[in-house]
Design a protein that fits this description.
The chain contains 37 helices and no strands. The longest helix has 16 residues, at about 60-75. By secondary structure, the protein is mainly alpha-helical. It starts with a helix and ends in a 13-residue tail after the last helix. α11 (about 120-125) packs across α14 (about 155-165), α14 (about 155-165) runs parallel beside α17 (about 190-200) and α17 (about 190-200) packs parallel to α20 (about 225-230). Among the domains are: about 1-115; about 340-463, no CATH class. Helix content is about 70%, strand content about 0%.
């Protein structure tokens, strides 16, 4: 009957449903003849990737073979028009049919998708279609590296491509042999692109990529934040190289006090102690001439002191000492950096600020903060210079209790003793009398206990 119908088939078969009704029960050799007759009409009969997927699922692999053969790459590309179509078709197939489609659509893979972008390779992986090395070789290597290179244009593409090539040995060779071109076309122009590109790669691939991209790092790193992001993606050896690359531009990207602090914190977070100390010394030597310009507040001063060595703190304090009266306007300002100073330096600061200290430490809360955050050794010069004004803030038993609240026993003794000798008006406070009597009833503490408390920064302060 089919022999008699002949060329009338194109009038009879005008939809995918009718096509399936006719060929669904035929052997492959009969389907071959029908598809030869309908060859030019098949793209219009099948019409879409969704309908094509239905045909792929309905027919056996043996029945599909003559149809795919009859259409060829040219006609298949009229049905599978985009990578979305290919994704949709793959998603609806079982493993055997997926492999069949990939094998028979290699021409489309070359012509239609790789020239557009690099998503196809990832599509095959993400859809669970892990091709054999032979399939990979046919599709992505033999004579088509130029197409792959042309297709990779965005960081996300090269990132996924590189990540997936790690899984298949044969494409690792492709990636390694063409790494220079891939890096040049990756369009990594900012730190976010760099991090997205670099993080997913294996240690081995990172080493290759870093070698080729190292000269462009100075273009990628335009701020201290950029440096921090890059640093966290690299190995210890690569971080040392990145530091050396950034050094010449450090003075231009450190624009504020917080920049320098953030730069040193970034190094300290990822580098071994000995490496950090060496790099900190080099960075400090470069930034030292501009410290007085970038430190614009007490917070800047305190942050930077917190991350420096004792010797560097001493140098920084000497540079900033003439500006202290300009940056210390409040109790917060005062506390933000004096914690890192020795008693001798605190005495110098208080001497310069003697007239202003009553306005800086102007409330019971301010006084309590000072007592709570500094060591007894550090408190001593403050009390010696400004004690008469500070203890005048205590006007009642309630004030007295507020000051003592939360302090260590050693600090309570320190406050009570100094309050007794300085604040004569407190002699009438019942709580003060009781505390004073209790103090006298106790044994005098050992001298070493009297000056030691948990707030003392020991050897880390400026001498």
């Amino acid at each position: 009957m089919l022999d008699n119908i002949g060329e009338q088939l194109s009038d009879i078969v005008d939809s995918d449903v009718k096509l399936l009704n006719i060929i669904g029960y035929l052997p492959p050799e009969r389907i071959d003849k029908i598809c030869e007759v309908l060859r030019q009409d098949l793209p219009y009969i099948i019409e879409s990737a969704e309908k094509f997927c239905n045909i792929l699922n309905t027919l056996s692999v043996k029945q599909l073979a003559p149809m795919i053969h009859a259409m060829g790459d040219e006609l298949l590309s009229k049905i599978i028009k985009s990578d979305q179509d290919f994704n949709h078709t793959l998603a609806g197939l079982k493993e055997e049919k997926r492999q069949f489609l990939i094998k028979n659509c290699e021409g489309i893979l070359h012509q239609a998708y790789l020239k557009k972008d690099a998503k196809l390779f990832n599509t095959l992986i993400n859809q669970g279609v892990i091709p054999t090395p032979e399939t990979i070789k046919r599709i992505f290597y033999d004579g088509h590296i130029d197409v792959i290179e042309e297709g990779i244009t965005f960081p996300k593409d090269i990132m996924s491509f590189a990540k997936n090539t790690e899984k298949i040995t044969i494409t690792q060779r492709l990636f390694n042999e063409n790494i220079q071109h891939l890096c040049n076309t990756s369009n990594v122009t900012n730190v976010r692109n760099f991090a997205s590109f670099f993080k997913p790669l294996s240690k081995e691939v990172r080493t290759i990529v870093f070698k080729h991209m190292k000269p462009t790092l100075t273009e990628v790193i335009q701020s201290i934040f950029d440096f921090d992001v890059v640093l966290r993606t690299l190995s210890e050896k690569q971080r040392m190289e990145a530091f050396d690359l950034v050094k010449p531009q450090l003075t231009s990207i450190v624009r504020e006090g917080y920049d320098f602090y953030h730069f040193l914190v970034s190094l300290s977070a990822v580098q071994p102690t000995d490496v950090f100390e060496q790099q900190r010394a080099e960075a400090f030597a470069l930034i030292r001439p501009q410290l007085t310009e970038i430190i614009q507040s007490a917070d800047d001063f305190g942050n930077i002191l917190s991350i420096l060595s004792e010797k560097q703190r001493t140098e920084t304090f000497a540079l900033m000492e003439p500006q202290l009266t300009n940056i210390i306007k409040s109790n917060h300002d005062f506390l933000s950096f004096v914690h890192y100073l020795s008693p001798e330096k605190i005495a110098d600061v208080c001497g310069k600020l003697k007239q202003d200290l009553p306005n800086i430490i102007s409330s019971l809360d301010n006084f309590h903060d000072i007592l709570n955050h500094l060591s007894i050794k550090q408190l001593t010069p403050i009390i010696n210079i400004a004690g008469s004004d500070l203890f005048k803030l205590i006007q009642s038993d309630e004030d007295f209790n507020c000051i003592l609240d939360g302090l260590t026993e050693e600090k309570k003794r320190f406050v009570i003793k100094n309050n007794e000798s300085i604040n004569t008006t407190s002699q009438s406070f019942s709580d003060f009398k009781a505390s004073l009597q209790e103090l006298k009833n106790k044994e005098t503490p050992h001298p070493s206990e009297e000056i030691q408390d948990e707030n003392e920064p020991h050897s880390n302060n400026i001498k």
